[in-house]
Amino acid sequence: MHGVTRAFMAFVRDGDLPYRRLIVNDHIVDEAATRLKKQASMQNAASFLRTLDESRLYQFQTVSEAVFDEAKATFVEWTDLDAAFTDFVVAAHMNTLEVDHILTFDRHYDAFDVTTLPYHSQD
Question: Residues of the chain whose pLDDT is less than 50?
Answer without folding.
Answer: none
